[in-house]
Amino acid sequence: xxxxxxxxxxxxxxxxxxxxxxxxxxxxxxxxxxxxxxxxxxxxxxxxxxxxxxxxxxxxxxxxxxxxxxxxxxxxxxxxxxxxxxxxxxxxxxxxxxxxxxxxxxxxxxxxxxxxxxxxxxxxxxxxxxxxxxxxxxxxxxxxxxxxxxxxxxxxxxxxxxxxxxxxxxxxxxxxxxxxxxxxxxxxxxxxxxxxxxxxxxxxxxxxxxxxxxxxxxxxxxxxxxxxxxxxxxxxxxxxxxxxxxxxxxxxxxxxxxxxxxxxxxxxxxxxxxxxxxxxxxxxxxxxxxxxxxxxxxxxxxxxxxxxxxxxxxxxxxxxxxxxxxxxxxxxxxxxxxxxxxxxxxxxxxxxxxxxxxxxxxxxxxxxxxxxxxxxxxxxxxxxxxxxxxxxxxxxxxxxxxxxxxxxxxxxxxxxxxxxxxxxxxxxxxxxxxxxxxxxxxxxxxxxxxxxxxxxxxxxxxxxxxxxxxxxxxxxxxxxxxxxxxxxxxxxxxxxxxxxxxxxxxxxxxxxxxxxxxxxxxxxxxxxxxxxxxxxxxxxxxxxxxxxxxxxxxxxxxxxxxxxxxxxxxxxxxxxxxxxxxxxxxxxxxxxxxxxxxxxxxxxxxxxxx
Length: 610
Known about the structure:
Elements: E1 2-3, H1 32-35, E2 47-55, E3 60-69, E4 72-77, E5 88-90, E6 94-98, E7 100-105, H2 111-116, E8 120-125, H3 133-140, E9 143-144, E10 150-153, H4 181-191, E11 196-199, H5 215-227, E12 232-235, H6 239-247, E13 252-253, H7 264-273, E14 276-277, H8 281-287, H9 292-299, H10 307-314, H11 324-338, E15 341-342, H12 357-368, H13 373-379, H14 382-388, E16 404-408, E17 425-430, E18 433-434, E19 449-450, E20 456-458, E21 471-476, E22 485-491, E23 494-501, E24 510-515, E25 524-525, E26 531-538, E27 542-549, E28 559-563, E29 569-574, E30 586-593, E31 598-609
Parallel strand pairs: 1-9, 2-5, 2-6, 7-8, 8-10, 11-12, 12-13, 13-14, 14-15, 19-25
Antiparallel strand pairs: 2-3, 3-4, 6-16, 16-17, 17-18, 20-31, 21-24, 22-23, 23-31, 24-30, 26-29, 26-31, 27-28, 27-30
């Protein structure tokens, strides 16, 4: 089935619509370098890539021709007989790869578009809103021009009441009794889950303590998944839960553990069990201060990045001390040596990672754990497809979907384990159509308003509209289908913000937003100012200040927490505390309640940027 367009998942901060252009059909024969040049048309749907070094998902093959027809690979081999009028791409001196498959992501906002612009043509989501699954299945079954990666997902995860996964605001049906496992799994299958994800996480590896499923319930869930012909994968962060999960029959683990190094004997037992592991080294490395992600960010053309990618890659909010990254890397090394299948996955867009772009960092990290070049590339292509049973993807083979990535240079000729060329992308084809790589413009206004001379202070003495800029408004997750509520009122010269955060959206929020510019989300140049200062009091819970920059409506903004105690308190937050924020383009400041869910009340007064 063919379609001209595929509907996308709506942006997390739906204040602006993204735009994307289409690239026309080609009638001439460009070399690959020309194909990637701005304004140069690229073959689409029916064409051939000739005389290219090919990585087919398992091994390299030289001097290959690949014929694409109706969005699928129709033939490949040396010196194919091709119609004279068939458009061609000269592949000499380049490497053609299958589209990458990210084995661990979380999908919302523009993440599917962010993924495909960096060659990640399919994503395996390990926890998302089940309401997305039907549309995702329809979209991925079509051969169509699209600006998004294909989505496969576990849907809802299995966790304990109050356990990992319940903090995000999505409706989760927790389990307390192994007797309920079969019904729980059947419900997920009916919702469209492609596999079952189970959480075995007590927080201990991160020096915390949260409720977790017991061993009996995990075993019952694994058995129930297998009875429904579904894979069962398990979230772990510590070695003992990993050992338990494999002993109970889990098919895969969707993190590597950071608390201890696995023994060689246990690694061999994993291999004998046929289990696969998605290490997610990207998020672990970012958490413990590794700079791989930031190095790739520095290497990348800014025009290819969305605000969300820039923000999450630069966000240090999960940063912590310790040797977790080194432990994780050694665990991957031992698992690989023992013969355990390694699947590349990033856990994007968690802080320290960026959807799509972090896959290239993950490949480098896996190479650092001892995987050879072909093994690294297989982990993100055929290995991921085989582990999760993803059809017609992960290989360049007859009948497979034409998800392709053409990169400059010959990866096979590089030093073993050197996969740095994967970022030097010439062209990406999704379903046989070329992908427009430039990120859509997200700026609301080309004009940046000047800040007034002197202090910028809002004191509410004359009501809610007093002060500088467009003013104050309610902001909640209702704009994204959430159910949280908020109300604003002025009492005794202070702004009272009250409401309730509720289940309904993955990242619940409710509160007040201040637009300092003449129009909503029009940036103001606060260059030379360095501190956000305000007075607050409230119910004693923790709240969050979000800082929006120009064009940042499609991304999660940088955040800083504060506590509103029972007495008036002055809060001062240096602007450089907001990761990657730029004082010259401040477009909005939101003061909101997030998790834990429930009712809230706090007051604000004397808000100023100084």
